[in-house]
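Long-time lurker. I teach an intro course on protein structure, and each term I like to show students one example going from raw sequence to a predicted 3D structure in token notation. This year I'd like something fresh instead of my usual example. Would anyone be willing to generate the tokens for the chain below so I can use it in lecture? Attribution to the forum is fine with me.
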Amino acid sequence: MGLNSTPSSERIHIAFFGKRNAGKSSLVNAVTGQNISVVSEIKGTTTDPVYKSMELLPAGPVMIIDTPGFDDSGYLGEMRIKKAGQVLRKTDIAVLVVSSEEGLSDEDRTIKSLLESKKIPYITVYSKSDLTGTPIPELNPANEIQVSSSSGHNITELKTMIAALADRDKNERKILGDIISPSDIAVLVVPVDEAAPKGRLILPQQMVIREILDKKAVPVITQPETFSQVISCLIQKPRIVITDSQAFGEISARTPEDIPLTSFSILMANYKGVLRQAVSGLKAIDRLKNGDRILISEGCTHHRQCGDIGLSLIHI
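-- Reply from a regular --
Happy to contribute to a lecture. Here you go:
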């Protein structure tokens, strides 16, 4: 996946928080090297979160987010603060921007508490160092830094700190975890039918293939109709079989009992941290009675088709 083809959901989201006029937008522009956000001396210039996709080495594709000030006022201000708060739910790494002139405020401490309660790693950046001319003493070099967006002072150092956190986050998140070892064979069942995206693989399939290759293992990709033939041809027993959900029943019946079987959807749910919740929700099936109504929701952005897994479940 290249920079432009990497989906937003799989980019590391780096959000900039702080009070109005703390220098968030100027800092975003300095970090990205582009005029992403409108900069003004007027408080509340940023009225909605501003998103920018970019490549931040060594972390790779990231999403930079500039947020409205957490100290906004009035009815619209409350709405802007709510928007900024919503960004927290999708933030992997936060940058708390504090004006060097004003120092840490109650609003900044509130943001810190929110980040810590949500266990979001963050860097505290004291901006506008060129206006004070005085270094802030006793900064923690691990997660605090003083910068100037206008002069460029410490901007490169800040980018290095952000990239280090982003790289750590990326390395900790693996879709296969420790399932695959070098030289293992993983058989991937990838149906190509009317529901398959034309000319590409879906994201979980891409991620699994790339991780198998990174681990120096062997991906063997087939379709449901050729699955049994592939299994019989392999000299080495596969470490695992991973199938698309729509073929799970068929592949389960044809997979030898001594070979672990899972699906791309299950791996993705575990990767996103919602697998336990999904498994817990399955218990509701045991409580169903005749006449009960069931809502089946499928979170996809494509047009609905007859082969979609959600529609297939209706006929079970």
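Some talking points for your students: The longest helix spans residues 155-172. The first strand starts at residue 12 and ends at 18.
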